[in-house]
Amino acid sequence: MERYLNTPIKEIITSFPEVGKILEEYSIGCVPCTLGSCLLKDIVAIHNLAEDKELELMYRIEKTIYPERDIKKPVFKASKKEPDKEIRYSPPMKRLVDEHTLIKKWIGRIPQVIENVDIESESGSQLILDGLDFIRFYADKFHHAKEEDILFDYTDKNLDIIRTILADHEAARGHVKEMLKAIGEKDTNAIIGHLCAYKDLLTEHIKKEDEILYPWIDRGLSTTQVGELFAKFNEAEEKMDKGVIEKCQKFIAEAEQRIENFHRS
Ligand SMILES: [Fe+2]
Ligand SMILES: [Fe+2]
């Protein structure tokens, strides 16, 4: 089993697809991950499962890989206390989670935008352009930059989980670039395709950060580091153009109405 603990998860899932299904039962979504180079042992450690759940998961994976082996099933005493499912973030991490809430509001509107996309009309193309500005300035320059330039300095950037997150950011930038090109060429199909891909990518990405990455980083931070992170976030925000950030927040507040009006006209 030692060998498999040090094997990239995609290799294990390719050889034993059942392992992917088992991981999903424990809310460990390795199957859709684009990189899949995380080692099995790191995945188990990062997800911080309750001790009994982790032993049960490892037992099931080992049994799937070595069905002929006589592996002792772990036995647990039933716990009277329900595990605490609520994630408590440190103040700087909570700020990033709150920023995700705003980004998710735009992601949630994308299906309506796609339904009504009209790149030929002025209001139609403006809505797409404003949505792209929100992604570029708020989701990327304001939010992703804080993660990349500050938060990830508190981690080992060579870890697969960080490489996966950085690859997601790059993929998101790729969709933005392609959408800008598609707007210029008035290519409605390409706009829809990249909007959909961005929505799917960011939905998974935010889930990974909220549920796995941020709690994992938080667990490793000392109180001094939490304070330092908070101060660095403040400093970074001070340097940003407040007018642009306010415009992005206003865009989200007005997006629903704009899509509605667009739908009616
Ligand atoms: Fe991110
Ligand atoms: Fe994020």
Description:
- This protein is mainly α and 265 residues long.
- It folds into two domains: 2-65, Orthogonal Bundle (SP0561-like), CATH 1.10.3910; 91-264, nmb1532 protein domain like (Four Helix Bundle (Hemerythrin (Met), subunit A), Up-down Bundle), CATH 1.20.120.
- Helix content is 73%, strand content 0%.
- The protein is built from eleven helices and no strands.
- The chain has helices at 2-5, 9-15, 17-25, 40-46, 51-65, 91-115, 122-149, 160-184, 188-220, 223-239, 242-264.
- Helix 6 runs antiparallel to helix 9, helix 6 packs parallel to helix 11 and helix 7 runs antiparallel to helix 11.
- The termini are far apart.
- The mean pLDDT is 88.
- The chain binds fe (ii) ion (2 copies).
Write the layout of secondary structure elements.
Elements: H1 2-5, H2 9-15, H3 17-25, H4 40-46, H5 51-65, H6 91-115, H7 122-149, H8 160-184, H9 188-220, H10 223-239, H11 242-264
The structure holds fe (ii) ion (2 copies).
One fe (ii) ion binds at residues 144, 147, 165, 169, 205, 209.
